């Protein structure tokens, strides 16, 4: 199993008031768990997978085996999803839209980014922030930018009617809190993407939210948007956790809409970067992004959806004008008051724990434990 963290190190401050869904690693294999009133329940005998538990729609803990108080349980948290597809939305904040255009115009060359950033922000930054995607005003802005020679495929998904939705990672490949997170060894310009992700069932109902890191290679995607898959989908390049906080009277989709996501990066070279992303600045509503993901597609095991990030680090690290890029050994800490803390250490993808438990091995493990009396 690909690393994890002790539960008590990743809890939100009001964990006893919330209801949480996730997975823990046991000696027999991964098990879905619920946290209710501060108590941890192993739900594997009720539903062998998180996906099956979500589809059943019963988060009462009935039939589960109590593992005791959450903050004293001797278990290891892993990625909170299993059979769900891992989807992601891009360019959902104005700042990220400008940064994607910078990558495109710089052709992935960090050295050219500074001057382009200053020029674009001055000319289109305010305009992008002021319009609603898909509106008549957005169409007028597009026409003006096209005429000025400033149009970009990234601006199309920033202010056009259609959101960017892509598949971030294969089923079962995500890592959890405490695991190593990977960047490609041949990338020289990359960054974390601290985000909130929604967990959605097969009917399209958002049932909860968690933190995530949608790692991005800016040099690869900047050279060509057709390299998005290579920039996004690499070993250990997607982390989720620590738990999915389920929607209830104490935590709703409105809490997601107004959440602040904080990022801290600490390097072994004593470099430190801090920043924050406020979901109130997102240009598309989270539930609209869910709706667009479901357009003419079905997800019978549900999906988890990254909502995009406001934060694109530009603080110089090694030399003036270079901006930020990861180094091996960086500790990435993503926090939000109601969702807890997701911490991962950066390594090269080739050096991260290999992904060896695919769907076949996963089902074999469940069968060996006698958990497949019903659907997985």
What is the topology?
Elements: E1 5-6, E2 19-25, E3 30-36, E4 39-42, H1 50-56, E5 65-69, E6 76-78, E7 85-90, H2 94-106, H3 113-130, H4 136-147, H5 153-159, E8 164-169, E9 180-183, E10 190-191, E11 194-200, E12 206-214, E13 216-217, H6 218-223, H7 228-232, E14 238-246, H8 253-257, E15 260-266, E16 272-278, H9 286-294, E17 303-306, E18 331-336, E19 340-348, H10 359-368
Parallel strand pairs: 7-17, 9-19
Antiparallel strand pairs: 1-6, 2-3, 2-6, 2-14, 3-4, 4-5, 7-8, 10-13, 11-12, 11-17, 12-14, 15-16, 15-18, 18-19
Defining traits:
single chain, alpha+beta, globular, Fumarylacetoacetate hydrolase, domain 2, 19 strands
How is this structure best described in words?
By secondary structure, the chain is of the alpha+beta class. The protein folds into two domains: about 290 residues, Fumarylacetoacetase-like, C-terminal domain (Fumarylacetoacetate hydrolase, domain 2); about 70 residues, no CATH class. Helices cover about 25% and strands about 30% of the residues. Strands 1, 2, 3, 4, 5, 6, 7, 8, 11, 12, 14 and 17 form a twelve-stranded mixed β-sheet that branches. The protein has a five-stranded mixed β-sheet with strand order 9-19-18-15-16, with no helix packed on it. A hairpin with a 4-residue loop joins strand 2 and strand 3. The relative contact order is 0.19. The model has no long low-confidence stretch (mean pLDDT about 90). It holds the Pfam family FAA_hydrolase.
């Amino acid at each position: 199993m690909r690393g994890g963290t002790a539960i008590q190190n990743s809890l939100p401050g009001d964990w006893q008031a919330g209801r949480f869904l996730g997975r823990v690693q046991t000696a027999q294999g991964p098990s879905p768990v619920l946290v209710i009133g501060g108590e941890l329940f192993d739900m594997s005998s009720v539903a062998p997978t998180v996906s099956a538990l979500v589809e059943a729609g019963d988060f009462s803990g009935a039939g589960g085996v109590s593992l005791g108080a959450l903050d004293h349980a001797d278990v290891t948290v892993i990625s909170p999803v299993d059979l769900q597809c891992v989807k992601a939305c891009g360019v959902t904040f104005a700042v990220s839209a400008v940064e994607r255009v910078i990558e495109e115009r710089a052709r992935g060359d960090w050295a050219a980014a500074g001057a382009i950033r200053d020029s674009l922000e001055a000319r289109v930054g305010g305009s992008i922030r002021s319009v609603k995607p898909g509106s008549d005003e957005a169409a007028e802005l597009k026409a003006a930018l096209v005429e000025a020679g400033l149009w970009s495929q990234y601006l199309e998904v920033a202010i056009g009617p259609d959101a960017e939705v892509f598949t971030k990672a294969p089923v079962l490949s995500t890592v959890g809190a405490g695991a190593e997170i990977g960047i490609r060894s041949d990338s020289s310009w990359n960054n974390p993407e601290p985000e909130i992700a929604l967990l959605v069932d097969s009917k399209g109902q958002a049932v909860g939210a968690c933190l995530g890191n949608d790692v991005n290679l800016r040099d690869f995607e900047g050279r060509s948007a057709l390299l998005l898959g290579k920039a996004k989908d690499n070993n250990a390049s997607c982390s989720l956790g620590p738990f999915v906080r389920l929607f209830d009277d104490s935590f709703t989709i409105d809490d997601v809409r107004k959440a602040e996501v904080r990022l801290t990066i600490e390097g072994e070279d004593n470099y430190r970067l801090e920043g924050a992303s406020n979901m109130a600045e997102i240009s598309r509503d989270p539930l609209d992004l869910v709706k667009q993901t479901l357009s003419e597609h079905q997800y019978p095991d549900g999906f988890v959806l990254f909502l995009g990030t406001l934060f694109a680090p530009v603080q110089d690290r090694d030399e003036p004008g270079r901006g930020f890029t990861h180094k091996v050994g960086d500790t990435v800490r993503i926090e939000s008051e109601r969702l807890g803390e997701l911490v991962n250490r950066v390594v090269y993808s080739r050096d991260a724990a290999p992904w060896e438990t695919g769907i076949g091995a996963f089902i074999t493990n469940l069968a060996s434990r006698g958990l497949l009396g019903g659907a997985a």
